[in-house]
Amino acid sequence: MRLFDTRTQEVVPFVPAQTVRLYVCGITPYDAAHLGHAFVYASFDALIRYLECIGHTVHYVRNVTDLDDDTLRTAAKRDTHFQVLARGEAAQFDANLARLGLRPPAVEPFVTDNVDAMIPFIQGLIDRGVAYSLPDHRVYFNIDHPNYLAFSQLSKDEALEQFREKGGDPDAPDKKNTLDFLLWQPSENGQPSWPAPWGAGRPGWHIGCSVMIHEHIGATMDIHGGGSDLVFPHHESEILQAESLTGQHPLARVWMHCGMVALEGVKMSKSLGNLVFLGDLLNEYSADAIRAMLLNNHYRANWTYTTEVMDAAQARVHRWQRVVGDRTGGPITQAEIDGFNDPDLTEALAQLGDQLEDDLNTPGALAVLDELADTQRAKALFMCGRVLGFFQTLR
Length: 395
Ligand SMILES: [Zn+2]
Prior knowledge:
Elements: E1 2-5, E2 10-13, E3 19-24, H1 35-53, E4 57-62, H2 69-77, H3 82-99, H4 115-127, E5 131-133, E6 139-141, H5 156-165, E7 181-185, E8 202-203, H6 205-216, E9 221-227, H7 231-246, E10 252-258, E11 261-263, E12 266-267, H8 278-284, H9 287-295, E13 303-305, H10 307-325, H11 334-338, H12 343-357, H13 362-374, H14 378-387
Parallel strand pairs: 3-4, 3-9, 9-10, 11-13
Antiparallel strand pairs: 1-2, 5-6, 6-7, 7-8, 11-12
Helix pairs in contact: 2-3, 4-6, 6-7, 9-10, 10-14, 12-13, 12-14, 13-14
Protein backbone atom coordinates (compact mmCIF):
# COMPACT_ATOMS: atom_id res chain seq x y z
CA MET A 1 0.00 0.00 0.00
CA ARG A 2 1.14 3.58 -0.60
CA LEU A 3 0.23 6.50 1.65
CA PHE A 4 1.12 10.18 1.64
CA ASP A 5 3.20 10.93 4.73
CA THR A 6 2.98 14.49 6.04
CA ARG A 7 6.40 14.26 7.68
CA THR A 8 8.30 13.42 4.51
CA GLN A 9 5.79 15.18 2.22
CA GLU A 10 5.73 12.27 -0.18
CA VAL A 11 3.83 9.13 -1.01
CA VAL A 12 5.65 6.31 0.77
CA PRO A 13 5.25 2.54 0.72
CA PHE A 14 3.29 1.32 3.71
CA VAL A 15 3.59 -2.38 4.50
CA PRO A 16 1.11 -3.05 7.29
CA ALA A 17 2.11 -5.36 10.13
CA GLN A 18 -0.38 -8.01 11.27
CA THR A 19 -1.71 -5.51 13.80
CA VAL A 20 -1.78 -1.90 12.65
CA ARG A 21 -1.55 0.60 15.50
CA LEU A 22 -3.56 3.69 14.61
CA TYR A 23 -4.12 6.84 16.64
CA VAL A 24 -6.50 9.52 15.42
CA CYS A 25 -6.94 12.75 17.36
CA GLY A 26 -10.48 12.92 18.65
CA ILE A 27 -12.91 15.69 19.40
CA THR A 28 -13.06 18.43 21.99
CA PRO A 29 -16.63 17.78 23.15
CA TYR A 30 -18.16 21.19 23.72
CA ASP A 31 -20.46 21.24 20.71
CA ALA A 32 -22.08 18.80 18.27
CA ALA A 33 -20.11 16.89 15.63
CA HIS A 34 -20.10 18.61 12.24
CA LEU A 35 -19.20 17.46 8.74
CA GLY A 36 -15.51 18.27 9.22
CA HIS A 37 -15.37 15.68 12.01
CA ALA A 38 -17.44 13.19 10.01
CA PHE A 39 -15.07 13.51 7.04
CA VAL A 40 -11.97 12.72 9.13
CA TYR A 41 -13.50 9.73 10.88
CA ALA A 42 -15.24 8.34 7.76
CA SER A 43 -11.92 8.49 5.87
CA PHE A 44 -10.15 6.53 8.61
CA ASP A 45 -13.10 4.13 8.75
CA ALA A 46 -12.47 3.31 5.08
CA LEU A 47 -8.79 2.68 5.84
CA ILE A 48 -9.61 0.48 8.85
CA ARG A 49 -12.19 -1.55 6.93
CA TYR A 50 -9.83 -2.10 4.01
CA LEU A 51 -6.97 -3.20 6.28
CA GLU A 52 -9.34 -5.62 8.00
CA CYS A 53 -10.57 -6.88 4.65
CA ILE A 54 -7.02 -7.83 3.64
CA GLY A 55 -6.49 -9.70 6.90
CA HIS A 56 -5.06 -7.20 9.38
CA THR A 57 -6.19 -6.23 12.84
CA VAL A 58 -6.36 -2.51 13.53
CA HIS A 59 -5.73 -1.28 17.06
CA TYR A 60 -7.58 2.01 16.74
CA VAL A 61 -7.32 4.58 19.52
CA ARG A 62 -9.22 7.87 19.35
CA ASN A 63 -9.09 10.22 22.31
CA VAL A 64 -11.53 12.72 23.74
CA THR A 65 -10.09 16.08 24.79
CA ASP A 66 -12.64 16.62 27.53
CA LEU A 67 -10.43 19.02 29.49
CA ASP A 68 -9.30 22.17 27.73
CA ASP A 69 -9.99 25.89 27.46
CA ASP A 70 -13.04 25.34 25.21
CA THR A 71 -14.82 22.78 27.39
CA LEU A 72 -14.10 24.79 30.55
CA ARG A 73 -15.22 28.09 28.99
CA THR A 74 -18.40 26.61 27.48
CA ALA A 75 -19.31 24.78 30.69
CA ALA A 76 -18.87 27.98 32.72
CA LYS A 77 -21.03 29.87 30.23
CA ARG A 78 -23.79 27.24 30.48
CA ASP A 79 -23.40 27.04 34.25
CA THR A 80 -22.73 23.31 34.19
CA HIS A 81 -19.83 21.09 35.24
CA PHE A 82 -17.36 20.65 32.40
CA GLN A 83 -17.53 16.87 32.67
CA VAL A 84 -21.30 16.87 32.41
CA LEU A 85 -20.95 18.90 29.22
CA ALA A 86 -18.05 16.87 27.84
CA ARG A 87 -19.37 13.40 28.65
CA GLY A 88 -22.76 14.34 27.23
CA GLU A 89 -21.36 15.78 24.00
CA ALA A 90 -18.93 12.85 23.61
CA ALA A 91 -21.78 10.34 24.00
CA GLN A 92 -23.83 12.24 21.41
CA PHE A 93 -20.84 12.28 19.08
CA ASP A 94 -20.28 8.52 19.42
CA ALA A 95 -23.99 7.93 18.83
CA ASN A 96 -23.93 9.95 15.60
CA LEU A 97 -20.82 8.18 14.31
CA ALA A 98 -22.55 4.87 15.13
CA ARG A 99 -25.61 5.99 13.14
CA LEU A 100 -23.25 6.71 10.28
CA GLY A 101 -22.02 3.12 10.69
CA LEU A 102 -18.41 3.92 11.57
CA ARG A 103 -16.36 1.37 13.50
CA PRO A 104 -15.85 2.49 17.11
CA PRO A 105 -12.25 2.74 18.33
CA ALA A 106 -10.83 -0.10 20.43
CA VAL A 107 -10.01 2.43 23.12
CA GLU A 108 -11.45 5.92 23.60
CA PRO A 109 -9.39 7.56 26.36
CA PHE A 110 -10.46 10.82 28.01
CA VAL A 111 -7.90 13.41 29.08
CA THR A 112 -9.33 13.61 32.61
CA ASP A 113 -8.75 9.85 33.08
CA ASN A 114 -5.09 10.19 32.12
CA VAL A 115 -3.86 13.21 34.08
CA ASP A 116 -2.09 11.00 36.64
CA ALA A 117 0.01 9.51 33.84
CA MET A 118 0.88 13.00 32.57
CA ILE A 119 2.74 13.96 35.78
CA PRO A 120 5.69 11.53 35.37
CA PHE A 121 5.72 12.23 31.60
CA ILE A 122 6.12 15.97 32.18
CA GLN A 123 8.62 15.37 34.98
CA GLY A 124 10.61 13.20 32.56
CA LEU A 125 10.78 16.10 30.10
CA ILE A 126 11.96 18.46 32.86
CA ASP A 127 14.59 15.89 33.95
CA ARG A 128 15.86 15.65 30.38
CA GLY A 129 16.29 19.41 30.26
CA VAL A 130 13.78 20.04 27.42
CA ALA A 131 11.07 21.52 29.66
CA TYR A 132 11.13 24.02 32.50
CA SER A 133 8.78 25.07 35.29
CA LEU A 134 8.01 28.59 36.51
CA PRO A 135 7.12 29.58 40.10
CA ASP A 136 3.44 30.17 39.18
CA HIS A 137 2.99 26.45 38.28
CA ARG A 138 3.39 26.85 34.54
CA VAL A 139 5.56 24.25 32.80
CA TYR A 140 6.73 24.85 29.22
CA PHE A 141 8.42 22.76 26.59
CA ASN A 142 11.51 24.62 25.41
CA ILE A 143 11.28 24.80 21.61
CA ASP A 144 14.97 25.65 21.34
CA HIS A 145 15.38 22.19 19.83
CA PRO A 146 17.03 21.10 16.55
CA ASN A 147 13.84 19.41 15.28
CA TYR A 148 11.42 22.24 15.99
CA LEU A 149 9.34 23.02 12.84
CA ALA A 150 10.93 20.08 11.00
CA PHE A 151 7.49 18.45 10.88
CA SER A 152 5.24 21.33 9.82
CA GLN A 153 8.01 23.00 7.80
CA LEU A 154 6.62 26.40 8.76
CA SER A 155 8.72 29.53 9.05
CA LYS A 156 9.00 31.08 12.52
CA ASP A 157 6.58 33.84 11.44
CA GLU A 158 3.99 31.39 10.13
CA ALA A 159 4.37 29.31 13.27
CA LEU A 160 3.82 32.36 15.48
CA GLU A 161 0.66 33.31 13.57
CA GLN A 162 -0.81 29.80 13.89
CA PHE A 163 0.28 29.49 17.52
CA ARG A 164 -1.59 32.68 18.37
CA GLU A 165 -4.65 31.67 16.31
CA LYS A 166 -4.93 28.20 17.84
CA GLY A 167 -4.92 29.12 21.50
CA GLY A 168 -1.18 29.51 22.22
CA ASP A 169 0.16 32.11 24.67
CA PRO A 170 3.00 33.90 22.81
CA ASP A 171 2.75 36.99 25.01
CA ALA A 172 2.82 35.24 28.40
CA PRO A 173 5.61 36.53 30.68
CA ASP A 174 8.85 34.78 31.65
CA LYS A 175 8.90 32.28 28.78
CA LYS A 176 12.32 31.41 27.38
CA ASN A 177 10.95 31.49 23.82
CA THR A 178 7.76 33.03 22.48
CA LEU A 179 6.69 29.71 20.94
CA ASP A 180 7.36 27.53 23.99
CA PHE A 181 4.17 25.58 24.56
CA LEU A 182 2.38 24.76 27.81
CA LEU A 183 2.67 21.34 29.37
CA TRP A 184 1.02 22.39 32.62
CA GLN A 185 -0.74 25.49 33.90
CA PRO A 186 -2.34 26.72 37.12
CA SER A 187 -6.13 26.28 37.29
CA GLU A 188 -8.30 29.32 37.67
CA ASN A 189 -11.02 29.56 40.30
CA GLY A 190 -13.54 26.78 39.93
CA GLN A 191 -11.46 24.91 37.36
CA PRO A 192 -10.38 21.33 38.08
CA SER A 193 -6.92 20.99 39.57
CA TRP A 194 -4.48 18.14 40.15
CA PRO A 195 -1.48 18.12 42.51
CA ALA A 196 1.93 18.10 40.81
CA PRO A 197 5.57 18.41 41.95
CA TRP A 198 5.90 21.85 40.31
CA GLY A 199 2.54 23.08 41.63
CA ALA A 200 -1.15 22.20 41.33
CA GLY A 201 -2.98 22.82 38.08
CA ARG A 202 -4.09 21.17 34.86
CA PRO A 203 -2.34 19.87 31.72
CA GLY A 204 -1.84 21.75 28.45
CA TRP A 205 -3.47 20.57 25.21
CA HIS A 206 -0.70 18.65 23.41
CA ILE A 207 0.61 16.62 26.33
CA GLY A 208 -2.74 14.83 26.60
CA CYS A 209 -2.41 13.08 23.25
CA SER A 210 1.25 12.19 23.81
CA VAL A 211 0.42 10.52 27.11
CA MET A 212 -2.69 8.73 25.82
CA ILE A 213 -0.63 7.38 22.90
CA HIS A 214 2.05 6.23 25.32
CA GLU A 215 -0.53 4.60 27.60
CA HIS A 216 -2.71 2.95 24.97
CA ILE A 217 -0.38 2.26 22.03
CA GLY A 218 3.25 2.62 23.09
CA ALA A 219 6.35 4.64 22.22
CA THR A 220 5.73 4.41 18.47
CA MET A 221 2.84 3.56 16.15
CA ASP A 222 2.13 2.77 12.52
CA ILE A 223 -0.23 5.59 11.56
CA HIS A 224 -1.14 8.83 13.28
CA GLY A 225 -4.05 10.79 11.85
CA GLY A 226 -6.15 13.87 12.26
CA GLY A 227 -7.38 16.97 10.49
CA SER A 228 -4.81 19.06 8.62
CA ASP A 229 -5.43 21.91 11.08
CA LEU A 230 -3.65 19.78 13.70
CA VAL A 231 -0.27 19.63 11.92
CA PHE A 232 0.88 22.71 13.82
CA PRO A 233 1.16 23.22 16.71
CA HIS A 234 -0.53 20.05 17.94
CA HIS A 235 1.31 17.31 16.08
CA GLU A 236 4.60 19.17 15.92
CA SER A 237 4.40 19.36 19.73
CA GLU A 238 3.37 15.71 20.14
CA ILE A 239 6.44 14.60 18.21
CA LEU A 240 8.83 16.77 20.24
CA GLN A 241 7.36 15.62 23.56
CA ALA A 242 7.23 11.91 22.77
CA GLU A 243 10.57 11.58 21.00
CA SER A 244 12.33 13.67 23.67
CA LEU A 245 10.99 11.44 26.42
CA THR A 246 11.39 8.01 24.84
CA GLY A 247 14.33 8.59 22.50
CA GLN A 248 12.40 6.50 19.96
CA HIS A 249 11.96 7.86 16.47
CA PRO A 250 9.72 8.26 14.57
CA LEU A 251 6.65 8.54 16.77
CA ALA A 252 4.55 7.46 13.77
CA ARG A 253 5.71 5.65 10.63
CA VAL A 254 3.13 7.55 8.59
CA TRP A 255 1.23 10.77 9.35
CA MET A 256 -2.11 11.11 7.55
CA HIS A 257 -3.96 14.42 7.55
CA CYS A 258 -7.47 15.03 6.25
CA GLY A 259 -8.56 18.13 4.37
CA MET A 260 -10.95 20.77 5.64
CA VAL A 261 -14.61 20.99 4.72
CA ALA A 262 -16.07 24.32 3.64
CA LEU A 263 -19.60 25.61 3.34
CA GLU A 264 -20.17 28.00 0.45
CA GLY A 265 -16.42 28.36 0.06
CA VAL A 266 -15.69 29.19 3.71
CA LYS A 267 -14.04 26.61 5.99
CA MET A 268 -16.54 25.24 8.49
CA SER A 269 -15.66 26.38 11.95
CA LYS A 270 -17.30 26.87 15.26
CA SER A 271 -16.15 30.48 15.46
CA LEU A 272 -17.80 31.37 12.14
CA GLY A 273 -20.95 29.44 12.98
CA ASN A 274 -21.18 27.98 9.45
CA LEU A 275 -21.51 24.37 10.55
CA VAL A 276 -23.48 21.51 9.07
CA PHE A 277 -24.13 19.10 11.92
CA LEU A 278 -23.88 15.38 11.31
CA GLY A 279 -26.93 14.69 13.46
CA ASP A 280 -29.10 17.02 11.34
CA LEU A 281 -27.87 15.44 8.11
CA LEU A 282 -28.60 11.94 9.47
CA ASN A 283 -32.20 12.97 10.08
CA GLU A 284 -32.57 13.80 6.42
CA TYR A 285 -30.35 11.34 4.54
CA SER A 286 -29.36 7.70 4.91
CA ALA A 287 -26.01 6.71 6.39
CA ASP A 288 -25.03 5.22 3.01
CA ALA A 289 -25.78 8.49 1.21
CA ILE A 290 -23.72 10.52 3.69
CA ARG A 291 -20.87 8.01 3.55
CA ALA A 292 -20.89 8.18 -0.27
CA MET A 293 -20.89 11.98 -0.16
CA LEU A 294 -17.93 12.03 2.25
CA LEU A 295 -15.86 9.31 0.55
CA ASN A 296 -16.34 10.94 -2.84
CA ASN A 297 -13.64 13.34 -1.63
CA HIS A 298 -10.06 12.13 -1.31
CA TYR A 299 -9.07 12.32 2.36
CA ARG A 300 -6.38 14.94 1.70
CA ALA A 301 -8.65 17.21 -0.32
CA ASN A 302 -10.22 20.42 0.95
CA TRP A 303 -13.78 20.46 -0.37
CA THR A 304 -17.04 22.33 -0.20
CA TYR A 305 -20.32 20.92 1.03
CA THR A 306 -23.49 21.77 -0.89
CA THR A 307 -26.96 20.20 -0.88
CA GLU A 308 -26.33 19.40 -4.57
CA VAL A 309 -23.40 17.07 -3.75
CA MET A 310 -25.48 15.52 -0.96
CA ASP A 311 -28.44 14.90 -3.28
CA ALA A 312 -26.15 13.51 -5.98
CA ALA A 313 -24.66 11.08 -3.44
CA GLN A 314 -28.14 9.98 -2.42
CA ALA A 315 -29.11 9.32 -6.05
CA ARG A 316 -25.89 7.35 -6.56
CA VAL A 317 -26.52 5.17 -3.53
CA HIS A 318 -30.13 4.56 -4.59
CA ARG A 319 -28.83 3.30 -7.93
CA TRP A 320 -26.48 0.87 -6.17
CA GLN A 321 -29.21 -0.24 -3.79
CA ARG A 322 -31.56 -0.94 -6.70
CA VAL A 323 -28.96 -3.21 -8.30
CA VAL A 324 -28.21 -4.99 -5.04
CA GLY A 325 -31.79 -5.20 -3.83
CA ASP A 326 -33.70 -5.73 -7.06
CA ARG A 327 -32.02 -8.89 -8.19
CA THR A 328 -34.35 -11.86 -8.46
CA GLY A 329 -34.64 -13.26 -4.97
CA GLY A 330 -34.23 -9.97 -3.12
CA PRO A 331 -31.27 -8.80 -1.03
CA ILE A 332 -28.26 -11.02 -0.70
CA THR A 333 -28.30 -13.47 2.20
CA GLN A 334 -25.40 -14.37 4.46
CA ALA A 335 -25.44 -17.93 3.08
CA GLU A 336 -24.91 -16.60 -0.42
CA ILE A 337 -22.04 -14.42 0.72
CA ASP A 338 -20.37 -17.33 2.50
CA GLY A 339 -20.70 -19.58 -0.52
CA PHE A 340 -19.74 -16.93 -3.01
CA ASN A 341 -16.53 -17.64 -4.81
CA ASP A 342 -16.60 -16.18 -8.23
CA PRO A 343 -13.78 -14.95 -10.47
CA ASP A 344 -15.95 -11.90 -11.11
CA LEU A 345 -15.84 -10.97 -7.43
CA THR A 346 -12.09 -11.60 -7.21
CA GLU A 347 -11.57 -9.21 -10.09
CA ALA A 348 -13.87 -6.57 -8.59
CA LEU A 349 -12.16 -6.77 -5.21
CA ALA A 350 -8.77 -6.45 -6.90
CA GLN A 351 -9.95 -3.28 -8.68
CA LEU A 352 -11.24 -1.88 -5.42
CA GLY A 353 -7.97 -2.76 -3.69
CA ASP A 354 -5.95 -1.03 -6.43
CA GLN A 355 -7.77 2.22 -5.67
CA LEU A 356 -7.52 1.98 -1.90
CA GLU A 357 -3.86 0.93 -1.96
CA ASP A 358 -3.17 4.08 -3.95
CA ASP A 359 -3.12 6.53 -1.02
CA LEU A 360 -6.65 5.57 -0.01
CA ASN A 361 -8.27 6.75 -3.22
CA THR A 362 -11.88 6.51 -2.06
CA PRO A 363 -13.32 8.49 -5.03
CA GLY A 364 -11.69 5.87 -7.28
CA ALA A 365 -13.15 3.10 -5.13
CA LEU A 366 -16.66 4.57 -5.48
CA ALA A 367 -16.16 4.66 -9.25
CA VAL A 368 -15.50 0.91 -9.10
CA LEU A 369 -18.89 0.49 -7.37
CA ASP A 370 -20.52 2.58 -10.13
CA GLU A 371 -19.01 0.32 -12.76
CA LEU A 372 -20.33 -2.78 -10.98
CA ALA A 373 -23.78 -1.18 -10.77
CA ASP A 374 -23.71 -0.21 -14.46
CA THR A 375 -22.93 -3.80 -15.42
CA GLN A 376 -25.53 -5.23 -12.99
CA ARG A 377 -22.98 -7.31 -11.07
CA ALA A 378 -25.07 -7.33 -7.90
CA LYS A 379 -23.09 -9.70 -5.72
CA ALA A 380 -19.74 -8.10 -6.52
CA LEU A 381 -21.26 -4.66 -5.92
CA PHE A 382 -22.63 -5.79 -2.59
CA MET A 383 -19.35 -7.33 -1.46
CA CYS A 384 -17.22 -4.39 -2.60
CA GLY A 385 -19.67 -1.96 -1.04
CA ARG A 386 -19.47 -3.84 2.24
CA VAL A 387 -15.67 -3.46 2.25
CA LEU A 388 -16.22 0.31 2.40
CA GLY A 389 -19.00 0.07 4.98
CA PHE A 390 -22.01 0.42 2.67
CA PHE A 391 -25.14 -1.74 2.77
CA GLN A 392 -24.90 -2.37 6.52
CA THR A 393 -28.66 -2.32 6.79
CA LEU A 394 -29.06 -4.92 4.02
CA ARG A 395 -28.26 -8.52 4.71
ZN1 LIG B 1 -4.18 14.95 19.44
